[in-house]
C-alpha cells in the first residue's frame, strides 16, 4: 500500500462528501424554501451551519461503515477497493442529481462498498457481513440489520410520524376553533398559524440539518478512518515525519476505533462547503413537485424526519436522510388528502430508492474488475 494511494482515498472520499453536501442539501432546506419561510441563500447558510455542528456529534454511524459491513478477515479493504466504492457512489449521485431525483447518498456508499469488496474477494459473498448479533438487537451489525431493514422501516416510520404530527395539528386547530365558537379554517389560510409555524419551521429545519450532519457526514469519516487503519497496520505510515503522525490510526482490541478529531472536522467542513453550493434541482422536486407545502406542513415533515434520523444516528444506523424527509412529506400530504400527493413523482423516487444499492454495487464491482484487468488492484 503506497502513501499516494492513501492520500488518493482521502481525496476521493472528500469529493464524495462535497457531492453529498450539495446533493442532499434539499433534505434539510427544501421545505423551508418551498414555504418561503427563508430565502434560498438563508436556507443554505442555515443548512451548512447545522450540518457542520451535526457532523461533529457522535461517531456511531462512522464505526458501522468502517467495521460493520465488510468482513476484513475475508477480503482486504485496500485503498483501491475504497476508491472504487466511492467512485460508484459518486457516479450514481451525479446521475440522480442531474435528473433531480432525491436518491440516497448513504445507500450509494453502502452499495459501492459491498460491490467493491465482493469483486476484490473474487465474488465470495461471505466477504459481506450480512448479520452478526450483539448482546442486544441494536448492537448487531451487518448489511441486513443496519441497512436493508432500516431502508424500509425508517421511511415507513417517517410517513407515519409525518401523518401523525400533521393530524395532531389539524385536530388541535379544530379544537381551538370550536372552543372559540368560530368556523374551523384550513391551515393554509389563517395568517396567525402560518406566521407561528413559519418561525417554528426555522427550528425544525435546523434539527433536520443537524440530523443530516450526524448521519451522512459520518459515513465518509468511516471510510477515511478505515483507509488509515489499514495503512497503519500495513506499516505504510511508519516512516512519516513527526508532524504527520496524526495520520496513524490504531485499531483497538475490540476491532473498533475512535474517529480522530481532525477527520471529524475535515469531513464536517467539506460537507458544509458542499451544502453551501446548494442542490436546486432536488429542492424543486421535494419542495414543489411532490406536494404543495405551507409552513405548518414543512414543520410537521421536518420534525418527523429529524426525529427518526436522530434516533438512527444514536444506534449507528446509516439511514437515508432523503428517504425519511421524502416519506415524511408524503405523510403530511396524506394527512390533508391522498390526492394532494403527486404519485407520478413518488413512483420515480421509489425506483431511485430501490435501484441505488444494486446499481452502485455493480458500478463499484466493475471499477474493481477494471483495475484488476490492468493489474492495478
CA radius of gyration: 21 Å
Give the low-confidence spans: 183-188
| Count of discrete alpha- or pi-helical segments spanning 4 or more residues | 13
Helix content range of the residues, please?
A: over 70%
Structure description:
The protein is mainly alpha-helical and 377 residues long. The chain has one domain (3-373). The protein is 71% helix and 0% strand. The protein has helices at residues 3-23, 25-34, 40-55, 60-67, 79-99, 105-120, 143-179, 191-233, 261-277, 280-289, 295-314, 321-336, 343-373. Helix 2 (25-34) packs across helix 10. The termini are close together. The relative contact order is 0.22.
Amino acid at each position: 500500500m503506497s502513501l499516494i494511494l492513501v492520500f488518493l482515498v482521502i481525496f476521493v472520499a472528500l469529493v464524495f462528501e462535497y457531492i453529498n453536501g450539495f446533493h442532499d442539501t434539499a433534505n434539510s432546506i427544501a421545505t423551508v424554501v418551498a414555504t418561503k419561510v427563508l430565502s434560498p441563500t438563508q436556507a443554505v447558510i442555515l443548512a451548512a451551519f447545522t450540518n457542520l455542528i451535526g457532523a461533529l456529534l457522535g461517531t456511531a454511524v462512522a464505526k458501522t461503515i468502517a467495521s460493520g459491513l465488510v468482513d476484513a478477515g475475508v477480503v482486504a479493504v485496500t485503498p483501491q477497493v475504497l476508491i472504487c466504492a466511492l467512485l460508484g457512489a459518486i457516479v450514481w449521485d451525479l446521475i440522480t442529481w442531474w435528473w433531480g431525483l432525491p436518491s440516497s447518498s448513504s445507500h450509494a456508499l453502502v452499495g459501492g462498498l459491498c460491490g467493491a469488496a465482493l469483486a476484490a474477494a473474487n465474488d465470495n459473498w461471505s466477504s459481506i457481513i450480512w448479520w452478526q448479533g450483539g448482546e442486544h438487537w441494536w448492537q448487531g451489525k451487518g448489511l441486513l440489520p443496519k441497512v436493508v431493514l432500516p431502508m424500509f422501516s425508517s421511511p415507513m416510520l417517517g410517513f407515519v410520524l409525518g401523518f401523525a404530527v400533521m393530524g395532531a395539528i389539524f385536530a388541535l386547530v379544530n379544537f381551538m376553533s370550536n372552543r372559540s365558537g368560530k368556523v374551523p379554517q384550513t391551515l393554509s389560510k389563517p395568517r396567525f398559524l402560518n406566521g407561528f409555524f413559519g418561525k417554528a419551521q426555522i427550528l425544525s429545519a435546523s434539527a433536520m440539518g443537524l440530523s443530516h450532519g450526524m448521519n451522512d457526514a459520518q459515513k465518509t469519516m468511516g471510510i477515511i478512518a478505515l483507509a488509515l487503519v489499514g495503512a497503519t497496520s500495513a506499516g505504510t505510515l511508519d516512516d512519516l515525519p513527526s508532524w504527520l503522525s496524526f495520520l496513524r490510526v490504531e485499531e483497538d482490541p475490540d476491532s473498533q476505533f475512535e474517529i480522530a478529531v481532525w477527520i471529524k472536522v475535515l469531513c464536517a467542513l467539506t460537507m458544509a462547503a458542499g451544502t453551501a453550493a446548494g442542490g436546486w434541482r432536488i429542492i424543486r422536486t421535494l419542495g414543489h413537485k411532490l406536494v404543495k407545502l405551507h409552513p405548518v406542513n414543512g414543520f410537521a415533515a421536518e420534525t418527523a424526519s429529524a426525529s427518526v434520523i436522530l434516533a438512527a444516528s444514536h444506534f449507528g444506523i446509516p439511514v437515508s436522510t432523503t428517504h425519511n424527509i421524502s416519506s415524511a412529506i408524503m405523510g403530511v400530504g396524506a394527512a390533508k388528502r391522498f390526492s394532494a400527493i403527486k404519485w407520478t413523482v413518488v413512483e420515480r423516487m421509489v425506483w431511485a430508492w430501490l435501484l441505488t444499492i444494486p446499481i452502485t454495487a455493480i458500478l463499484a464491482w466493475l471499477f474493481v474488475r477494471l483495475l484488476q484487468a490492468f493489474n492495478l488492484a
